[in-house]
Amino acid sequence: MQQYGVLVVDDSSFMRRCISLIIEKDPQLFVIGIARSGVEAIEKVHRLKPDIVTMDVEMPEMDGMTALKEIMRTCPVPVVMLSNRTDKDPKATFQALELGAADFYLKSALLQENVKPEIIKEFLDKLKAIAQKARKTADKEREQNTASENMSEILENILNKPESSIETKSGSADLLIIGCSTGGPSALQSILPRFPKDTHVPIVVLQHMPPGFTKPLAERFDAICNLHVKEAEDGDILEAGNIYIAPAGYQTFLDKKADNVIALRVEDCPAVETLYRPSINVTLDSAAPIYRERLLSVILTGMGNDGLIGCETVKKYNGKVIVEAEESCVVYGMPKVIYEAGLADVQVPLSNIFHEIMHYI
After folding, report:
1. Which residue of the set 11, 56, 103, 306 is catalytic?
2. Has domain 4-140 been given CATH number 3.40.50.720?
3. 351 a catalytic residue
């Protein structure tokens, strides 16, 4: 059983203790050290070489943002931002992700009274998945340092390079749905701004986030994209050249109206049994019968299996599925289960995702 060392960074002794107790619930995780400030965090990252760091945002002497930037510059290691501030200031969260943070989590979600066991499990699973990916990447880089290993891999890549199974069929999709979770905001940033102004299909994005984060995310992308980006609202009519980001805390459905226009239905929907709000499965299940073979779905980095059932429905109606390859995923969870179920038409690294999408739109 692999174990991963976690450095817990927080200026509050109470918070350090609470977070440490949560981490130690999982036998694969152990607290390798604690730090009370950004300065101490940098020193201990260099000295203790943790597999992953949980980092508070607001600390004396040096805040979490400054420490994160320095860690990414001098000794890169996965960092999960963990703070109460992020639910009041999503911009700080997005800044942290841009600086290199692997993900973020709200202390309020972890430390609330009568916290649900599945929330703790999700947090611990996320830490393990991120740490595991980082260790595998580091191991692979070490292997590539020898000339013989490098030559072997070069030859293997030349001989076994997979070819895209998606044929070039420009204009064969009428709707693009993108689903992602852990690592999603950064992945989206490498795709969404590349769509040209004359993109002739609507795009729906489902990103797992806490409530209150999807509207600022949409505003952020609207400022840097050629297309108009907005948080989806109940009753929105899908229009080409627009990107709709499904709101956190709700489920987003697609409905075909009497005049054949397609509208978004955004509901609280407590009866839907899923951890995810929005759920990729829910949206794909409603879109596939409407768009059938003209639906293109893309599943990017993320933990868990959301999207698996939805992609089964997409394939039932002869739609197309693109998934992100393991090499570029922050967490190879959602794409993996879809690929292993045989539902993906093609699996490519993030750098090739936009190119594959453009085959169809």
Report:
1. 306
2. no
3. no
